[in-house]
Design a protein that fits this description.
about 300 residues, Rossmann fold, 3-stranded parallel sheet, 3-stranded antiparallel sheet, binds glutamic acid
């Protein structure tokens, strides 16, 4: 009886969450999912604009989710900056903005489910033991270690996983050969991005992922986890990245400038130009976005991993 109860719990919790989503009415649900590891920069604006216009041009929903499970990497004040940007740039999310740090019980429920299905195992290997190899050999797979205070890895298979990216074309990986069993929860208890993103895309009823090409190589891991959990497959579009004058992608680590909210219309215009969209007239951001949605055409976005100009 206890077994039945505990095996019913995770799927019950998850089913309840997903039931809140109006899944039958929308064929397109997109999202913008920034991590608050620094203030948003021009590269983030490109992702926000593209995900918003693509969703709205297809009469879809657009949601915002703050990906803040990696607590040590949170940069003070950046969550507030994200919220101010959403407002100042005229984006209108179709539901409350969610924070992943409030949803840890859901990720744990999915880990319980994966443990019952014997898809995950505890790994005691330290970074030092793993050495410089990027491919995990699966040394802890057969050890049956207790989960407490260990990293939790998902088993992968020796098979090719492919998807058709709307911009980047066909992309494939063999997770066993390229990576090995990968971590879903770290030894320090932090839920890994791969787990949180897959669970939340499912629970929020997301159908279309539009994000930067720096995440292209993560996609097969997410597809694999989604398949193990019997979640529906998603459509992916990975955008070319904005680069700085040193040829580095704009990122918080490379000290990209924080978006200046007082210049929202100009920056919005620049972001649309970076995506090779037809020009919109300078106006209040809401009106500029309305026009951009009407003119939105993914055929014009460069099918490359990087944009050609330089940005700050
Ligand atoms: N949180 C991730 C980031 O800020 C994006 C995740 C995603 O779009 O899948 O880079």
């Amino acid at each position: 009886m206890t077994v039945t109860e505990s095996s019913a719990k995770p799927s019950f919790v998850l089913a309840q969450q997903r039931n809140n989503v109006p899944l039958n009415c929308v064929a397109y649900s997109g999202r913008f999912a920034p991590s608050p590891t620094g203030p948003l920069h021009f590269g983030s604006l490109i992702t926000a604009v593209a995900s918003y216009c693509d969703a709205k041009a297809q009469h879809g929903r657009w949601l915002v989710r703050i990906e803040d499970t990696d607590i040590p990497r949170i940069y003070p004040g950046s969550e507030q900056h994200i919220l101010r940007c959403i407002d100042a740039f005229g984006f209108q999310p179709d539901d409350d903005i969610i924070l992943q740090k409030d949803r840890l019980a859901l990720y744990e429920a999915v880990l319980d489910q994966l443990a019952q299905d014997r898809q995950i195992y505890a790994c005691q290997c330290t970074r030092k033991m793993l050495g410089s190899s990027h491919i995990y050999a699966g040394s802890c797979r057969g050890l049956n270690l207790a989960f407490e205070q260990q990293a939790i890895r998902l088993k992968v298979a020796d098979q090719q996983i492919c998807f058709d990216d709307r911009l980047q074309g066909k992309h494939c990986a063999n997770l066993q050969q390229d990576l090995g069993d990968f971590v879903l929860k770290r030894r320090d208890g932090i839920i890994n991005y791969q787990l949180a993103v897959v669970v939340d895309d499912y629970l929020q009823g997301i159908t279309h992922v539009v994000r930067g090409a720096d995440l292209l190589d993560n996609t097969e891991r997410q597809i694999w986890l989604g398949r193990v959990l019997h979640y529906p497959e998603l459509s992916y579009m990975h955008l070319p990245l904005a680069m700085n004058s040193q040829g580095q992608k704009l990122s918080k680590q490379n000290l990209a400038h924080a978006l200046d909210l007082s210049r929202a219309p100009e920056l919005l215009q620049q972001a649309l130009r970076a995506l090779h969209q037809a020009d919109v007239e300078l106006d209040v951001p809401e009106n500029m976005l309305k026009q951009a949605i009407m003119q939105w055409s993914i055929q014009h976005i460069p099918h490359s991993k990087q944009l050609s100009g330089h940005y700050l």
